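[worker-b] picked up task from shared queue
[worker-b] task type: protein-ligand structure
[worker-b] ligand name resolved to flavin-adenine dinucleotide; SMILES cross-checked against name lookup, match
[worker-b] sequence length check passed
[worker-b] input payload:
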Amino acid sequence: MSDLHHPAAHAYDRPVASLWAASARLADQAPPALEGDQATEVAIIGGGVTGLNAALTLARAGIAAHVVEAGAIGWGASGRNGGFCCLGSAKLSWPAIIRRFGRAEGLAFLDLQRQAIAYVRALCADHGIDCIQGPPGEAIIAHHRAAVPRLVAEARFHTQVLGLASRWLPREALAERGLVTAQAQGALLLPEGFPLQPLDYVRGLAAAAGRAGATISSGSPVTGWRRDGARHRLVTGRGSLSAARVVVATAGYTRDRLHPGLAGRLLPVLSNIVATRPLTPAEQAAQGWTSATMAADSRTLLHYFRLLPDGRLLFGARGGLSAAPAAEPITRARLERDLARMFPAWAGVETSHFWRGLTDLSADRLPHLGTLEGGTVHYALAWHGGGVAMGSLCGAVIAEQIAGRGRSLPQPLTRPLPAFPLPVLRPLYLALAYGIFGLTDSF
Ligand SMILES: Cc1cc2nc3c(=O)[nH]c(=O)nc-3n(C[C@H](O)[C@H](O)[C@H](O)COP(=O)(O)OP(=O)(O)OC[C@H]3O[C@@H](n4cnc5c(N)ncnc54)[C@H](O)[C@@H]3O)c2cc1C
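[worker-b] inference finished, payload out:
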């Protein structure tokens, strides 16, 4: 089975040229690759926030856990994301979730997402992971007058149905909050979430998991998987790992060939980020954007952005159908053009970094936590570009399940992961969605 993306998307030995890699406080501990035939209780495929939280929680429960990561720790989305630790992980709207699963289940799903944010904050405090970068809360900027009634209604839905203390900030009030863009017509303010340096978070997690007794092997892609009686054997480049249970925590980097039970069930999509050089306080004031609040605009193909502690603007967006290196300059130019349109005072300010990575969508636009092979294979996948908080908590939840301390989970998370109809057409579905939303987002 061939991959959906150009091989460059899976070049695990290629370092990620992110701002995070250039500025991380914590060094990569570079655990050695798996060598020879080894055994453990729980093998975890993927050394991102999901896999490492599973490993940490298992190790703390006294259960032997071994993470096998194809690249460096945090090489996947976990070490290269926008650092928004926020509500998210589904692409289905809250009204749609409540219509489909009922109010109690919808609210339980929201509650789990809020717990996930609190969990990450507590984890960082407990393990001394110094990665939090800014104030709590998030602003959804109305990018067009037509988006205003929708966001005003959303604010009302948040307070009246979801019990969130969100509020609508009209256009006249944006300047005093330092939230002015050339397009902004007002903003929906959510009190939830906080920004973090993702690579420091994931490296801090790996260190905490190691201290708790988990084993971690980097540079160890799983290329084969077979049953050994009741056990599983994962074959990596230089060795193999036998385990009673396997946790799949490979998110957007999951290849169809990894496990037949997951093939054709995820759509990996590119998300792209540029970071500017540090903007001086005068430059920030000239634009009217001085807030370090996490922000996104109201487009379906949204932009996400935030000022970093050193004054840089991080500016990201999904999009781009090709992961080939030759396509990178095109995507970078598009981001720079969008940035200049939104923040005209910064048009021409050079971007010092550009990078991108894969995030994972499912056919039902919901995240999924489930099992295969009689409960011996666990997975937590399909974060829809929002797995920092939920991936972290769900990794821990899987570990709790394995330790026999499972909690009750909301239905939107636990339905079986559906296959895409005619999975071979996934790139076409994406191209169509980008085309349609690109049009509808313009008004
Ligand atoms: C550019 C970008 C920006 C984003 N911004 C945000 C954001 O601001 N907030 C947010 O919440 N989410 C964001 N996301 C999504 C978020 O980063 C992910 O949802 C989250 O990190 C998923 O974590 P994970 O541990 O499940 O997977 P990942 O971090 O992707 O880790 C999966 C790992 O599995 C490894 N792997 C894959 N196959 C194998 C194999 N066969 N053998 C061994 N290892 C394997 C990969 O190398 C990878 O390191 C963003 C994603 C991208 C790409």
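[worker-b] attaching auto-annotations
[worker-b] The longest helix spans residues 103-126.
[worker-b] releasing lock
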